[in-house]
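It is worth pausing here to work through a concrete case rather than discussing structure prediction in the abstract. The textbook approach is simple: state the sequence, then state the predicted structure, then interpret. We follow exactly that order.
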Amino acid sequence: MLRNGAAGGGGPAAGGAAVPRPVRVWCDGCYDMVHYGHSNQLRQARAMGDYLIVGVHTDEEIAKHKGPPVFTQEERYKMVQAIKWVDEIAPGAPYVTTLETLDKYNCDFCVHGDDITLTIDGKDTYEEVKTAGRYRECKRTQGVSTTDLVGRMLLMTKAHHSNIGPKGHSPWTGVSQFLQTSQKIIQFASGKEPQPGDTIIYVAGAFDLFHIGHVDFLEKVHQLAEKPYIIAGLHFDQEVNRYKGKNYPIMNIHERTLSVLACRVRVCRYVSEVVIGAPYAVTADLLDHFRVTLVCHGMTEVVPDKDGSDPYEEPKRRSIFQLVDSGSNLTTDLIVQRIIKNRLEFEARNQKKEAKELAVLEAMKRLEDEKQ
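Step two, the predicted structure:
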């Protein structure tokens, strides 16, 4: 997509014709505990232009307007950069989006989901750019939010993937409401087939709450070959529950699939394929079917299969198994510990957000009633 002229853009060419230039798009947010909802917003925003810049707020700004973030700003910067639709990040972006910010980064307009973001004093953070006509809206991904995921961890029971409560919905304890579709998978998938000379690398796991520890691991795996084609096997929820315990996974298999597919590994390289509901044991049939030349696992514990056998017995027999040290100590367990450690603060934050959203809905309803 190209655009003629525009602010900060190209000038006249020979003959007086305007030189087309790329459309630059701005998104901003907390991006705390990045999930497939964030990725889907950024995918839609990137489709509106040629170059996507994502502004990420500081810990201080988030704490001021929303409450304590789960991840540090450095962790959040790195995680947003790992989303394959992001061309550039802008660290320390202001919480209120202004024309000055758009002009600073030479962006034509900003994009946000169809939900309202408010400051601590209840003002629309996008009011200025909306008034100037430099605001575009994309569809929010239903069924997930950082508040929702925090709520699931506060709840931490087997029921957090099921509709519970009298109306099948719990407003802030975090019940998964996500409905997977084939179209959503197509939108996230790379569609890239393995090419002659590619090294087909297989990795498997829960990839729950996809985080920078996973990204660091995949980057190290990527470095093992000149032309890597990475296939990620994701275990079904029941299997993860067996080897991780009754509180896991936090995200269901469909949510975890999209999170992994959204990942970029190094420059312009992606997780090329995902096996949804991969067998826990890496079998001869699986290795032969995908023509796997290398199987990798991180430094975390490998739990035996149901019959007590080593799930990596076959790749070890073929001498194609390799342990990979990601250099990161972040795990899904540690993320949950962060939430539990500050349980009261996060409960208060979630309840505060729920109250704010209800107030916005009531205000919108009043406006609709007045129009009628």
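Step three, interpretation. The CA atoms of residues 150 and 174 lie 7 Å apart. The longest strand covers residues 199-205.
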